Known about the structure:
The structure holds two protein chains of two kinds.
Chain A: H1 3-18, H2 21-50, H3 71-77, H4 82-115, H5 123-135, H6 138-148, H7 155-163, H8 178-204, H9 208-216, H10 221-249, H11 253-259, H12 270-281, H13 284-316
Helix pairs in contact in A: 2-13, 3-13, 4-8, 4-10, 5-8, 6-11, 8-10, 9-10, 12-13
Chain B: H1 7-34, H2 38-42, H3 55-63, H4 66-97, H5 103-113, H6 118-136, H7 144-168, H8 172-180, H9 185-196, H10 198-214, H11 217-222, H12 230-233, H13 245-279
Helix pairs in contact in B: 1-13, 3-13, 4-7, 4-10, 5-7, 7-10, 7-13, 8-9, 10-13
Amino acid sequence: xxxxxxxxxxxxxxxxxxxxxxxxxxxxxxxxxxxxxxxxxxxxxxxxxxxxxxxxxxxxxxxxxxxxxxxxxxxxxxxxxxxxxxxxxxxxxxxxxxxxxxxxxxxxxxxxxxxxxxxxxxxxxxxxxxxxxxxxxxxxxxxxxxxxxxxxxxxxxxxxxxxxxxxxxxxxxxxxxxxxxxxxxxxxxxxxxxxxxxxxxxxxxxxxxxxxxxxxxxxxxxxxxxxxxxxxxxxxxxxxxxxxxxxxxxxxxxxxxxxxxxxxxxxxxxxxxxxxxxxxxxxxxxxxxxxxxxxxxxxxxxxxxxxxxxxxxxxxx
Amino acid sequence: xxxxxxxxxxxxxxxxxxxxxxxxxxxxxxxxxxxxxxxxxxxxxxxxxxxxxxxxxxxxxxxxxxxxxxxxxxxxxxxxxxxxxxxxxxxxxxxxxxxxxxxxxxxxxxxxxxxxxxxxxxxxxxxxxxxxxxxxxxxxxxxxxxxxxxxxxxxxxxxxxxxxxxxxxxxxxxxxxxxxxxxxxxxxxxxxxxxxxxxxxxxxxxxxxxxxxxxxxxxxxxxxxxxxxxxxxxxxxxxxxxxxxxxxxxxxxxxxxxxxxxxxxxxxxxxxxxxxxxxx
Lengths: 317, 280
């Protein structure tokens, strides 16, 4: 009895320990310092760089780079010049790429999750197998695809021309128009397991009663999917689609490893485009201006997406 | 659970066969090509090797200094994973248990950096590292240290996010009891929370390791010949006079197996972490 007031006092002190912001900041300090060094300061520096004439002569002495005002932005946005036109083109290609990859990955992931929803003997095995493309290091998977897509000694042409006789012409998959198809294909192959993983987790949280009720009302699989699965997955899907979109939009590994130094014009994705225009010409000022524009574009798109989905959610309620 | 009529069973088997095929086909080609003699991969493609050989697995170490790249990748990824976990555990504990001004701002800022294009950080970071070198003599550009620092922040946001979810699921009474016993908050974290959260911490460590192991963009700029890691090194097979595709496939398998195995063991934790974060 005599102990109790002391114990509550200690517990209160313990709770008070958690309310000491000083210690919290101390615990956060390493994370904060690293985030500052690698993310926040570079972002600020990037914006600063975009207003400078930062060419190769000033890399080691960047503070001496002359002020450029908005010139870098004007060059990047001038669609009549070669630089601006190719940047805009690259943006459209990237947008198409991201939309196709998100749609394809989501669709495959959703169908696979649906097919594996029921417990069955091979479920765990298949689930693990389906995750393998995502589990491979991205560059290793893309290098393998580079081999599969070779014109003369690759598997895909052998399959299409010699085995299935679908076409007589051995296509160049890594050059010209088909290179866009190739990069989308490889990216979907790599990303759909992620969609599968998330959608599968989302499906587990849908109460079975809902399906039971729908089945009693005479709903077939199609209607159960439309009336139960999809609406219940909506919150998961909203996040999944956004994350997938941002990942693929910023994707560097797939095009860079698939095409090497010679990116075909048709598959000129924006990250590689900025990378190459920065490190080929060593014009970091212009490269930074392009990066900042890319960030603004993504922020605009993300905000629009979030507002749109939030408004629809409110209407639905 | 979906209620299915009988015909749906057929749909399921056809569908699952389709998915199995698209996953296995490239893996099959990878594995068999790695066991082919060079002439087999240079001429027209064949489904089966004319002669099964393990020589590519021996040759990969000689064609390029793969051993050094491998060691670099192991060192960089391990160091990045360990540091990332250490930093993330403290930060996650602060966010999970303490109430302090700036808590929400910190979480949002850290998470949103995850969504920004890597290219945005690349040029400034390159410049910053070059200049830190000049000012202080600490070589970050072209060194393994620079890579470790860069990579550990890549995995940090997600690691913190996952660990906050994990710590939140551990009853506060546990560390309160430790506090009552006279341990400080850090003591409570290390002696009570960390042991309970070990599965989550291991998952985060594997995640950080895999992230570092697979990174291409920064590795392609920030490494020198001495500090080169696998993602960049592997591309050297194709810049040789002829591409040794059998060796490329063998090397891809060798660098994939350890991390793929780690990832597949981790998948359950990843799903838990992701859904826990999404629910909140």
